[in-house]
Amino acid sequence: MAVKLEKKAPFKGDHVGSLLRPQRLKQARLQRANGEITAEQLRKVEDEEIIKLVEKQKEAGLQSITDGEFRRSWWHFDFLENLVGVKGYDSGKGITFDGIQTKSRSIKVIDRVDFDESHPFLDHYKFLHNQVGDQHVPKMTIPSPNMLLLRGEIDEDAYGVEAILPDLTNAYRKAIQAFYEAGCRYLQLDDTSWATFLSEKGLQSLRDKGYDPEKLRDLFTRAINESLEGRPDDMLITMHICRGNYRSHYFSEGSYAAVSEIIFSQLQVDGLFLEFDDERSGGFEPLKHVKRDDLHVVLGLITTKVGEMEEKEEVKSRISRAAEYLPYEQLALSPQCGFASTEEGNDISEEDQWAKIRHVLEVSGEVWK
């Protein structure tokens, strides 16, 4: 069993989870796609590269250790399409990010949604757990249930949008318990759904799809909280709220103010990883809506999109400004997002990636002595 978290909170210097794939792994995945190597041969390369990655994270000084999402193509689709009743497929079109487009992929709900122990992410976690050892904490990252509601095509013969909720949240409760039984004590839900409420452009996109934004906010809130019902008391569950991250481009923008009362007062997570790396995120004023002394907010002040390093004293100053709204003991520091939400990765070098992580740990070590 890995070392226990001292308290139900993220580490003061933490990270979101995904890391740049090494070239050897990218090449092996391409070879597998072309039928040049077997699934077993690819798995061997993934195993070897994850073992190296675990050691690199330890050497950098991280306490929470992930597998970098090395076995995934996407941060969300890979998990969701392996749920019972969900199918992944080539949609013929990608998602537009600030002028560029992803490769094509989508998911559809074709039957009743469920989770069973054949889901490959359980084995992914068990492998990570066995590599981490007892002095660090293995962290598992999965997409939030809202991502199936937002990104999945739901066959009307199978469900209506609200009718899917009981099965979806039950599937997540089963997943959380399965990860727990595999040894997981630190689980993160990654979620871009909240970003659609942060700007008029995002709200209009929902209306164009026939959604009532206010009702959808309520549905997303229920999806999170009902998924967390009955979770183990000694399991830390956080959420990363993201505005999109693909090859150093973003999807949406806007202050948290539009949903601050929901995310800070209603969501039953233990911690929130929030992007605050540039003007797209607005200021820290929405933190005033935190009414819980057990909710921890991880400030994503270090960007993963470019290699240029943030000035240390400016980062400290920004933490100080956030502390005007929330006590230091409820704050922490991390990069604003993962370094590779998809296997392509951001336009940043591995050297700069590790420098950014060390920077987070150095600053956090000085702020929270």
Automatic annotation (TrEMBL):
<dbReference type="InterPro" id="IPR038071">
    <property type="entry name" value="UROD/MetE-like_sf"/>
</dbReference>
<dbReference type="Pfam" id="PF01717">
    <property type="entry name" value="Meth_synt_2"/>
</dbReference>
<dbReference type="GO" id="GO:0032259">
    <property type="term" value="P:methylation"/>
</dbReference>
<dbReference type="GO" id="GO:0003871">
    <property type="term" value="F:5-methyltetrahydropteroyltriglutamate-homocysteine S-methyltransferase activity"/>
</dbReference>
<feature type="domain" description="Cobalamin-independent methionine synthase MetE C-terminal/archaeal">
    <location>
        <begin position="16"/>
        <end position="343"/>
    </location>
</feature>
<dbReference type="InterPro" id="IPR002629">
    <property type="entry name" value="Met_Synth_C/arc"/>
</dbReference>
<keyword id="KW-0808">Transferase</keyword>
<keyword id="KW-0489">Methyltransferase</keyword>
<protein>
    <submittedName>
        <fullName>5-methyltetrahydropteroyltriglutamate--homocysteine S-methyltransferase</fullName>
        <ecNumber>2.1.1.14</ecNumber>
    </submittedName>
</protein>
